[in-house]
Design a protein that fits this description.
CATH topology: Tetracycline Repressor, domain 2
Radius of gyration: 18 Å
Largest sheet: none
CATH class: Mainly Alpha
Helix content: over 70%
CATH architecture: Orthogonal Bundle
Order of helices and strands: HHHHHHHHH
Distance between the termini: 64 Å
Number of domains: 1
Shape: elongated
Length: 190
């Protein structure tokens, strides 16, 4: 008896969700197909019914992580009186630092993208462009975006601070890094 199309779609989504979470925590190289399938509650043998290769799954998981980053950004900005402050406070926060599974995919997986194939790098470039465009709007005057260089510098400050704050062992030092980034980006406002 075969699986229905709906069951196959749900299984596919579970695999992508499991891969996304595991890769956000440990990088794109860390989880094996067996680990991912087990995390999804499925058998290893069913993997190739859903994906032609592990690389195809990596791309789907990274795209899913980028979509989640975009949704988190949207939620951070929703209803904010000061959208720049809302974005910066969310992005460079201890809560975001500690949320490896659903935090920013650029900070979590950027090192992997740098060593990845061109398709993976394209996904990252698209996300960096989205963030840069957002920061151009948020840093500029209403109707007049900030210059691109200021937006890229602000983005680099935020992503770098999140990345480094996750890497240091001292929580007070980590918090200091995040606070410094928030202050630096907010001071760039036009």
């Amino acid at each position: 008896m075969g699986h229905s199309r709906d069951e196959k779609t749900r299984s596919h989504e579970r695999i992508v969700a499991a891969a996304t979470g595991l890769m956000m925590e440990g990088g794109t190289e860390a989880p094996s197909v067996a680990d991912i399938m087990s995390s999804a509650g499925l058998t290893h043998g069913g993997f190739y019914k859903h994906f032609a290769s592990r690389d195809e799954l990596v791309a789907a998981a990274v795209a899913s992580a980028m979509d989640a980053s975009n949704e988190a950004t949207r939620e951070a900005l929703e209803g904010a009186g000061d959208p720049l402050a809302a974005f910066v406070e969310w992005y460079a926060s201890p809560a975001h630092r500690d949320d490896l599974r659903s935090g920013c995919a650029v900070a979590a997986l950027g090192t992997d993208a740098g060593r990845g194939d061109p398709g993976l790098q394209e996904l990252f470039q698209d996300q960096v462009e989205r963030y840069a465009g957002l920061l151009e709007r948020l840093l500029g005057e209403p109707g007049a975006p900030a210059d691109r260089r200021a937006a890229l510098a602000a983005l680099s400050t935020l992503v770098g601070a999140l990345y480094v704050s996750r890497a240091v062992g001292d929580e007070a030092f980590s918090a200091e890094i995040l606070a410094s980034a928030r202050e630096s980006v907010l001071s760039r406002r036009s």
